[in-house]
Amino acid sequence: MAFFRGLTAVSRLRSRMDLKSQLRELIPEQQDRLKKLKSEHGKVQLGNITVDMVLGGMRGIIGMLWETSLVDPEEGIRFRGLSIPECRKVLPTAVEGGEPLPEGLLWLLLTGKVPTKDQVDALSKELLARSTVPAHVYKVIDALPVTAHPMTQFTAGIMALQVESEFQKAYGNGLPKSKLWEPTYEDCLNLIARLPPVASYVYRRIFKDGKSIEADDSLDYAANLSHMLGFDDPRMLELMRLHVTIHADHEGGNISSHTGHLVGSALSDPYLSFASSVNGLAGPLHGLANQEALLWLKSIIQETGSDVTTDQLKDYVWKTLKSGKVVHGFGHGVLRRTDPRYLCQREFALKYLPEDPLFQLLSKLYEVVPPILTELGKVKNPWPNVDAHSGLLLNHFGLSETRYHTVLFGVSRSMGVGSQLIWDRALGLPLERPKSVTMEWLENYCKNKAA
Ligand code: HAX
Fold first, then answer.
1. Residue 33 falls inside a structural domain
2. Minimal CA–CA distance to 199: which of 143, 137, 261?
3. What is the CATH number of the domain that holds 370?
4. What contacts 274, CB < 8 A, 6 or more positions away?
């Protein structure tokens, strides 16, 4: 007994001395310090920003140039001045009255001009011609366990594509700064072109028979992505065109866009920059929210059946919140109304799958979730975002492997991040290097200011 008591005393002593134990002791007091700083000095001005903004994830600070798109909190995204409904009207389509071709959006993002159908068709062909993926890329993906998350396998593929970077070569050969946009352009178009075969390889490796499907040279970019995944239903091709278009860009401050731009500002090449974007996208508060949102919808049906009542739904939402989770697919860092990317997907669902049980469930949740989030008293935007809707549409046409959905967001985002990277280099934008401060610095600043 005495021996065991001795052992406990030794481990207690060790636990007080080891690094993690030290941290465990320190963290609560530093958390209290941060709370105090926020509550006592949150409104203190530091130039034209406040302590709250420094501590609150830089929310609302204008600090970056992003030419390709702009988000208005009430109205949502505009791509080079065009809203989503306007893009759906003016961008060329594959089907009359159908969804825009993402190549048209890429053209718009890069030039600020709406392309003709001929220009878009030529760009589709150019992307297809650039889409050959070197064999080593697939070997790199194959080196990962098949159980690795699809986003991990996708990023590994992007990193493996990097060995063909034209930018890295040109920089090494001393290309002047004013010309760096040209190899950036080459890399970005090659990267955009090669993502569909890499993404579909990951899908078929994990969820299907592992056999790749060749691109069809009669198809456009998004349709080919769907085809290579193994889905040829014309409605799914239309869905993929819409999906890629609306996920392509969302101004510069969101995590995937910002990381790509930040890493690119060190003159890391577009592959390195975009791999960082994809890693940011893989976070559940950002792109992975589409996976989480669909899993949540499916869990509701599993628990309550599809004839769920409003009261059961309210209980389920409260249960989710009380367990410490967020309601994925709702809320936003900038938007203060329903995301127009949600609304256009809803329109698509009303047209093609109005009876889908998951769609009907989401429509009910549109009534139930916002009042509950508002009741919490801290949520700035209780309305749904893009990620609430995208998964159930893919699921309807057979792409039911929820864990894969963020990869398709990633393919789409290459168009926005790539377009801005080209402009970053064309405009010679500088290294990004905001200033950070410590809690002690802020405390002293606020004390001196008060004095
Ligand atoms: N469910 C529960 N709580 C929520 C919430 C939600 N949907 N949205 C916000 N909140 C909470 C926040 O967690 C925060 O709580 P604490 O103060 O306790 O930390 C509080 O409300 C204030 O947050 P906010 O100012 O309204 O929102 P943020 O700018 O901090 O965060 C998020 C924006 C999108 C991350 C947030 O709304 C959220 O977590 N939503 C669910 C995840 C999601 O759908 N993410 C995808 C967003 C769109 C996107 O990037 N797509 O890729």
1. no
2. 137
3. 1.10.230.10
4. 158, 191, 260, 414, 417, 418, 421
Per-residue pLDDT of the chain (451 residues; tens, 9 = 90+): 444 454 466 666 565 679 999 999 999 999 999 999 999 999 999 999 999 999 999 999 999 999 999 999 999 999 999 999 999 999 999 999 999 999 999 999 999 999 999 999 999 999 999 999 999 999 999 999 999 999 999 999 999 999 999 999 999 999 999 999 999 999 999 999 999 999 999 999 999 999 999 999 999 999 999 999 999 999 999 999 999 999 999 999 999 999 999 999 999 999 999 999 999 999 999 999 999 999 999 999 999 987 899 999 999 999 999 999 999 999 999 999 999 999 999 999 999 999 999 999 999 999 999 999 999 999 999 999 999 999 999 999 999 999 999 999 999 999 999 999 999 999 999 999 999 999 999 999 999 999 8
Instruction: Give the number of the atom of ligand 1 that is nearest the alpha carbon of residue 329.
Output: 44
Q: Which amino acid is at 115?
A: P
Q: How many domains does the chain have?
A: 2
150 and 233 together in one domain: yes
Residue 52 lies inside a defined structural domain of this protein: no
**Ligand 1 pocket list (CB less than 6 A):** 254, 285-287, 289, 321, 326-333, 373, 378-381, 385-387
- Domain coverage including residue 296: 289-396
185 and 89 within one domain:
yes
Query: Both tokens of residue 311?
Result: 């009261």
Give me ligand 1 centre to Cα 332, in Å: 6
175 inside domain: yes
The number of the ligand 1 atom at minimal distance from the alpha carbon of 321 is 2
List phi, psi (to 5°) of 202. -60, -45
Q: Which of 387, 389, 396, 424 is catalytic?
A: 387
Residue 40, domain member (yes or no): no
